[in-house]
Amino acid sequence: MENIALVSIVVIIVVGIFSQWLAWRIQWPSIVIMSIAGLLLGPVLGLFNPQEALGSLYSPLISLAVAIILFEGSSSLDVREISGVSKSVFRIVTFGAFFAWIGGTLAAHFIAGLSLEISFIIGGLFIVTGPTVILPLLRNAKLKPRTAAVLKWEGIIVDPFGPLLALFAYEIIKVLTTDSLHANYLFHFFLSAIIAVILGYVIGMLVSLMISKGVFPEYLKTPIIISFLLLCFTVAEVIMHETGMLAVTVMGLTIGRTKHYVSSIGHDVSHFVENISVLLTSTIFILLTASLTRETIAEMFTWPIIGFVLVMLFIVRPLSIWLSTIGTELANSEKLLIGWIAPRGIVALSVSGYFAAILLNDGHEGAAMLTALTFALVFITVCAHGFSLRPIAKALKLANDTAPGVLLVGANSFSIALADYLQKMNLPVLISDSSATQLQPAVNKKIPVYHGQILAEHSEYEVDLTPYETILSLTGDAAFNVLVSQSYAPKFGHNHTFTLISRSYKQEGSNKIPFAGKGHLLFQEGAVFTELNKKINTGYTIQELPLDLKGKIEKEQLPEDIIPLFIKKKNDTIQLITLRTKITLDDGDQLVVLQKEKS
């Protein structure tokens, strides 16, 4: 039994992570690949059933994983993200959720054929569009910040309230249908929900206070935050089932707010929790889909269930968004996109199983179809929205569809010349610097600039980074360049973060350069900050090398006194030259260099 559980856990984790990798390679929504992988492992090939293998640990593992994912999402929220659309977000998470509840209830009763009691309960649950599905889709789609912020906030805020609404509906049904229960039974529900909110807030403030006072050493901060998170969730669940998600969401919101004042709750904690969240999202989808039975899969394709899903997709969701956003800041195109995108995920799947069990115990035979109904809604919405979000967003001009751009940190003669050349290639560019004087030559050339400190936290909300895939640190300060690279590597990716060699590196010798950093140090040994700027100021220009070269190019084959900068690919993208990369030209490629302007 131990070996079965061990193998199951390892297989689930490995398949989940490699599903995410495969999705990245083929540019598919990761949730679709994970769902397919789980179905293949479980009901299709019958290799194993995680629910049977893990036994009593199955539900607690899913619950704890959902708690961490919700915490990660809520702690990353910042009010500055919804500047200009706060009214829309408020309307969607209140009136929009209510309209979706009523619409879902009517659809479940009249289309799926469920009793009005079960429909009232499940309608509350189906308002969720959680972070486990929304956030991966937003990462792939590269929406404009305003639209992405609305979808992100809706998913994270509504996610814990879906189960609570379903639980509230269940409590009302019990009071109305059971003579021995009275209205004071509902008082326990509301009291427990209030206690969960207070608990999340108190623990969040307590953790922030202790960290600000230096109670914990640096290496223990993240484990201690995770421990308090799990404690918060468990205590709330003990008080009343399904309030744990509300408690950890409030805890995350509290810590997310206080980390603006407590600087030691920084990027390391956020990145660790984000990585754990990605791992858990992969694991849970494999767990849930692999645990389905073939009978459940077959039941998904019955007309009542398909009809219910179609009504939820094309009537309930669009109508709830349009009604709730009347008179708000959103444009019609934004309403149209948001009204279409509402994928359901882990919370809907896991919580519907809980309600199916208790409703069957209460004698509601129709609850047997809840699992098939929920998975049909989850899988169809994930596929439909996952594959359509990017194309629809591009058609509505709500996505960045330009070629991958370049963010250049540091305004100087060389960086401005490089940005000017890239802009003429029709690549989006942005130069960031804290000095208005240094930026003025770029402004004169009509190059987009950001006047501010790129490392400051507020810069994330003042600069739209979605058009930019690559970041270049081009200042004369070696320490600042390294800090920029370290800070932005998680956002841009290790292979899209580059640093210019400074004078200090040249003086100290290349052996002093860390091995991991050499691969991302730009150009060549002599191409230091001062030398590049000197050349630009003495008549050198950036231009294509007029030589017909192909294959691997050795330095000896190039003319003297030139510095190779990047390869201009035939699809008009660029491949930067670094200390460690060999220059290789394919058909149609051009080598762009810094060389003396011919008189």
Automatic annotation (TrEMBL):
Residues 13-394 form the Cation/H+ exchanger transmembrane domain. The keyword Transcription regulation does not apply. Residues 406-505 form the RCK N-terminal domain. The chain crosses the membrane at residues 6-24, 31-48, 54-71, 92-112, 118-138, 150-173, 185-211, 223-256, 276-293, 305-325, 337-360, 367-387. It is found in: Cell membrane. Its main location: membrane. It is a multi-pass membrane protein. Keywords: Antiport, Cell membrane, Ion transport, Membrane, Transmembrane, Transmembrane helix, Transport. It comes from the Bacteria. This is Sodium/hydrogen exchanger.
